Fold:
Amino acid sequence: MSFLFCPNCGPVDIENTHFVNQEETLTVRGEAITHIAPVRICDTCGESIYDEELDAPSLDEVYAIYRRRHNLIAPGEIAALRETYGLSQRGLSALLGLGEVTIHRYENGALPEEAYSHLLRLLKRPENMKEIFDERKDRLSSAARRKLENRLELLLHEHERLTEPRARRDGQAAAA
Structure:
């Protein structure tokens, strides 16, 4: 038997509950966000019951709505950024001068501050990462430094290869 806690009835067997989809409003950083969420209901009194299995995904959805509204970087984008450059969470944090747990929290769903989100998005461009790397490479271990240096060399070369023909075409069009 699995029990949940009803604020009116006390412990309730999960078998004596059901769930409904209903409009729910949560406040994120002072902003009310309304969405449709599954809510577990006590069959005895009709009161909503906290159910972590239902509430955790609901909170993730509300955070995703907030991220879209405020153009904040998403957890998967940060992981992809690190993967692109071959950096660990610790390495990226060290390079940016952030606390060690900051990147971990952001990748696990915490909402980044707007400035951090903007900084992380700027790092998607290899030339921006190169600039930070050149200024702060001493913050990385020698292995992480070599790995990032090699990745940057490849990414910048690829970026050059892809943009050069376009720049040449744009220049020819302007000359005509």
Notes: The CA atoms of residues 25 and 89 lie 33 Å apart. The first helix runs from residue 52 to 70. The chain has two domains: 9-70, 75-168.
